[in-house]
Amino acid sequence: MKKVLPSAGLYVITPDALCHSEPLLLKAVQAAIRGGAVMVQYRDKINDADTRLRQAKALQALCREAAVPFLLNDGPVSALSHSGLDGVHLGHSDGDLEEARRLAPSAWLGATCGQSIPRAVAAQAAGADYVAFGAFYASTTKPQAQRASVDLLPQARQAIHIPICAIGGITPENAAPLIAAGANYIAAISGVFAAGDIEAAARDYSRLFPR
């Protein structure tokens, strides 16, 4: 039976800068979880496939111990059927959601939807557990990403019933309107992991969500 995702909260995504060192990566994610992160996504654009899988499994073990959902970013759909990973987040060209759901009925599946509500509706129908919209603000991770309007969120909330993640340049100072507009999760990369105190930065985000 598939476990249920958190209803709301901070969703942290690892930056490439931490993927050079597995000990530093694990330490940083532990700090983010202590600060209140409710979901973790491993995003690694620099290492080879074997290194990514090793680090993903180490992170998954950490997240399981903390009872925090863990997903692999842009992982091949086939990874779900033989790697033992709990979930995968698929971008626009990273694989077929329906195939992923068929291969791993109990896995967590997330889908990037950009600014497209029809894409989100299709992702929900294909078996996604949540969808991500953005970028809502200027993003250092994807500086060329098209911007999404805050007005997109209440419209999406009317069209789908699965959780919505907002991403892109979101800080504790600009996140509140997104949460008020319907975002269940706020995704953060540099806002958490580039901070001098990762745990405190995660806590600043986490305080924004109703208890």
What does this entry look like structurally?
By secondary structure, the protein is α/β, with parallel strands linked by helices. The chain has a single domain, classed as TIM Barrel (Alpha-Beta Barrel), CATH 3.20.20. Helix content is 37%, strand content 18%. The chain has 9 helices and 8 strands. The mean pLDDT is 91.
Task: Considering the chains and any ligands shown, give keywords for the structure.
eight-stranded parallel β-barrel, 8 strands, alpha/beta, 211 residues, 37% helix, single chain, TIM Barrel
Q: CATH fold name, please?
A: TIM Barrel
Share of helix, binned = 25-40%
Level-2 CATH architecture: Alpha-Beta Barrel
Give me the side-by-side strand order of the main sheet.
1-2-3-4-5-6-7-8
Indicate how many domains the architecture comprises: 1
Could you tell me the mean pLDDT? 91
CATH class, anyone?
Answer: Alpha Beta
Which stretches are low in confidence, meaning pLDDT under 50 for 5 or more residues running? none
- N-to-C terminal Cα separation, in Å? 27 Å
Kindly estimate the percentage of residues that lie in beta strands according to DSSP: 15-25%
Count of beta strands = 8
The biggest beta sheet is recorded as: 8 strands, parallel, barrel
Structural class from helices and strands?
Answer: alpha/beta
Q: Whole-number radius of gyration? A: 16 Å
Write out the CATH superfamily name. Answer: Aldolase class I
Q: Given the structure, what is the number of helices? A: 9
> In one word, what is the shape?
globular
H-E order? EHEHEHEHEHEHEHEHH
